[in-house]
UniProtKB/TrEMBL annotation:
One of its GO terms (molecular function) is ATP hydrolysis activity. Belongs to the ABC transporter superfamily. The keyword Nucleotidyltransferase does not apply. This is Fe(3+) ions import ATP-binding protein FbpC 1. Keywords: ATP-binding, Nucleotide-binding, Transport. It comes from Microvirga aerophila. The keyword Nucleotide-binding applies. The gene is fbpC1.
Length: 371
């Protein structure tokens, strides 16, 4: 594989600011022999949006990203960038740049040379290439470090060089393949915020691969959740968290208590759901009367020691962990073992204490259709 970050040629208009472009997959499939890595996937990334491809190892997200770049060719289907069919175009003809997980910096070149390399190879004069590189290094906050070798930089700084090198040819689309995986936990948060800020300030179209759901929730305009080579659900972070389409998404995005209940009545857009002694009303999302699964977020469950709740299930606290900003509980109840998170400065409820369990109905409880 070509380890050069940029896969974009420098055309005559490369010095001009380009418009962010859309990316569209129409029933795209990728097969490696008998393995189907991506199976008839369709989506649209709107211009100027940051969209993450999120899913467990082996679900097909890297293959999808590499097909946008033209580093893998689709076995079937159509890929459009900015409305142009690029399905059969090589990487060099797609106007796309990629930041690789490993950064792929040239160790024997300075920071400046690394960033100026792409424009130089593509025919820019040395002066223009240096000017373009300096501008991008300034954008990523590395002015002053131009002469250093990559080995003289921290992991976070190396990552920024990789971003500057991908930006320098002003591609229509920028791709990130697990960009934070070589950084320690503390840096990760800062760098992901930097990437998001840069993307928004420059109005870039970005496709971003991660298997970390928290990272995806934090940086994305929209998330494409993949499972077994297919799309499980596409939506904003909030839509995925609050209205997971199936048990896989409910479990993969954030923590969820998966409970069994029954729709006992349908009234307009609302479903009346019975879970033991709890009766709740939720938007029905196409469910029929009968058994359903519910995904209940840990912070949508309330525990009350007074036991005086009319619409509540009784339970017993089994474990309480005080974590500073939150207290986490394991609670035993007739509706199952519950994982509960409470925020705010409170004394933890002691293990063994009987509690009344109720749900926040406005948010954090979702019906899973078809479950
Ligand atoms: N070059 C290849 N030859 C054969 N099979 C491949 C090849 N590349 C990927 N695959 C297979 O395709 C499937 C999807 O791989 P892909 O790398 O896209 O997954 P991923 O979601 O990015 O996983 P990870 O998070 O582990 O990188 C996997 O089953 C993988 O083994």
């Amino acid at each position: 594989m070509n380890q050069m970050t940029s896969v974009t040629p420098l055309g005559p208009s490369a010095m001009l600011k380009k418009q962010a472009a859309s990316v569209e997959f129409r029933n795209v499939t990728k097969r490696y022999g008998s393995v189907t890595a991506v199976d008839s996937v369709s989506f649209v990334i709107e211009p100027g949006q940051l969209v993450t491809l999120l899913g467990p190892s082996g679900c097909g997200k890297t293959t999808t990203l590499r097909m946008i770049a033209g580093l893998e060719m689709a076995s079937a289907g159509q890929i459009l960038i900015g409305g142009r069919d690029v399905t059969n175009l090589s990487a060099a003809d797609r106007d796309v740049s990629m930041v690789f997980q490993s950064y792929a910096l040239f160790p024997h070149m300075s920071v400046l040379e690394n960033v100026a390399y792409g424009p130089t190879v593509q025919g820019a004069s040395k002066k223009d290439a240096v000017a373009m590189a300096m501008e991008k290094l300034s954008l990523v906050g590395l002015t002053g470090l131009e002469k250093r070798a990559p080995s003289e930089l921290s992991g976070g700084q190396q990552q920024r060089v990789a971003v500057a090198r991908a930006l320098v040819l002003e591609p229509q689309v920028l791709l990130f393949d697990e960009p934070l995986s070589n950084l320690d936990a503390k840096l990760r948060r800062r760098v992901r915020e930097d990437i998001r800020e840069l993307q928004q300030n420059l109005n870039l179209t970005v496709a971003y691969v991660t298997h970390d759901q928290e990272e995806a929730l934090a940086v994305s305009d929209r998330i494409i959740v993949m499972s077994n080579a297919r799309i499980a659900q596409t939506g904003t972070p909030r839509e995925l968290y609050e209205e997971p389409a199936d048990l896989f998404v409910a479990d993969f995005i954030g923590d969820a208590n998966i409970l069994t209940g029954a729709v006992v009545d349908l009234a307009g857009p609302q479903a009346h759901v019975q879970i033991d002694r709890l009766r709740i009303e939720l938007p029905h999302r196409g469910v029929m009367k009968g058994p359903v699964k519910l995904a209940v977020r840990p912070d949508a469950i309330f525990l009350d020691e007074t036991m005086a709740q009319p619409n509540a299930v009784s339970g017993t606290v089994r474990k309480a962990s005080y974590l500073g900003t939150q207290i986490e509980y394991e609670v035993e109840s007739p509706i199952g073992e519950l994982f509960v998170v409470q925020y705010g400065r409170k004394e933890p409820i002691a293990p063994g204490t009987p509690v009344a369990i109720s749900f926040a109905l406005q948010r954090g409880v979702a019906i899973i259709p078809g479950a």
